[in-house]
Amino acid sequence: MTLKGKRIVITGAAGALGRGVSECARALGADTVLLDLAFPADAPADGSLRLCVDLGDAGATAACFGQIGPVDGLFNLAGGFAMGPRTWEVTDGEWAQMYQINVATMQNAVRAAVPGMAARGRGAIVNVGALGALKGQGHMSAYCAAKSVVMRLTESLSAELKHHGVNVNAVLPSMIDTPRNRADMPDADPSLWVSPQDLGNVICFLGSDAARAIHGALVPVAGLS
Questions:
Q1: Which pTM value belongs to this model?
Q2: Long-range CB contacts (< 8 A, 24+ apart) of 155-158?
Q3: CA distance 172 to 69
Q4: Residue 84's CB: how many other CB atoms inside 10 A?
Q5: Is residue 148 part of a domain?
Q6: Which of 28, 34, 50, 75 is the most exposed place for a label (fewest CB within 10 A)?
Q7: Backbone φ/ψ region at 69: left (φ over 0), alpha (ψ -120 to 50), beta
Q8: Which domain holds residue 19?
Q9: CB within 8 Å of 119: residues ≥ 6 apart
Q10: Does residue 2 fall inside a structural domain?
Q11: Per-residue DSSP letters for 171-217?
């Protein structure tokens, strides 16, 4: 498996998952372009191009991709999670927030990247769904609904693009081993969770030519949980 010679755009790249995925992609030879709202001042000088952009803003996202130029892969990691009240108590703002950070960011990046991929007849898109959103969960209705949209859009995009040389798939992680999750669940056993590096290996595989026969897959990545 290699990503040598491929320019890969990674959204949500400043987070723990983004760092793990970008490290994996660079190790496999990719030219990585990292997108997020902001990056820490001590971000490593690893040769990546880092661009600050609000992916929830369609115009700003289009302008950013215009600056980047042709890309071979798009890894849509931008997203977020929040527990919520009971379904009938979720506010319009809470619904909108979960949709904006999980769905709109992906849609805007796809709108910006897909025309060029389809015109060149090659490319790969990997989205991030959620294993827990395969069915509804209590106090997680807005999150489950948003991630369900991501999964259905992945399947629709695949059906539309697979005959244009573009692979579209998604990973469905369970709990990811991040500093925030460890802080939020101090009594849990993180050795059972999925590391960002292991999830990165799956994402990079789906973005490589080795996965060119895989279209519209929703790949569970559950670790030992």
A1: 0.96
A2: 155/216, 155/218, 157/110, 157/114, 157/125, 158/215, 158/216
A3: 29
A4: 19
A5: yes
A6: 50
A7: left
A8: 7-221
A9: none
A10: no
A11: EEESSB--HHHHHH-TTS-GGGSB-HHHHHHHHHHHTSGGGTT--S-
1 domain-assigned: no
Other C-beta atoms lying within 10 Å of the C-beta of residue 28: 19
**Tally of CB atoms within 10 A around 40:** 7
Q: Is residue 17 part of a domain?
A: yes
Mean pLDDT estimate for the chain: 95
Beta-carbon contacts of residue 223 (< 8 Å; ≥ 6 apart): 174, 175, 192, 193, 194, 195, 198
Tally the domains of the chain: 1
For residue range 85-118, list pLDDT tens digits in order: 999 999 999 999 999 999 999 999 999 999 999 9
> Which residue's entry shows tokens 């992906």?
106
Q: What are phi and psi of 67, to 5 degrees?
A: -70, -35
Beta-ladder partners of 194: 176
Q: What is the CATH number of the domain that holds 59?
A: 3.40.50.720
* Owner of token pair 């259905």: 152
For the segment 38-75, what is each residue's pLDDT rounded down to a tens digit?
A: 999 888 889 999 999 999 999 999 999 999 999 999 99
> How many residues appear in the chain?
225
C-beta separation of 154 from 216 below 8 A? yes
E strands, 15-140, are 31-36, 49-52, 73-76, 123-128
Q: Are 129 and 147 in contact (CB under 8 A)?
A: yes
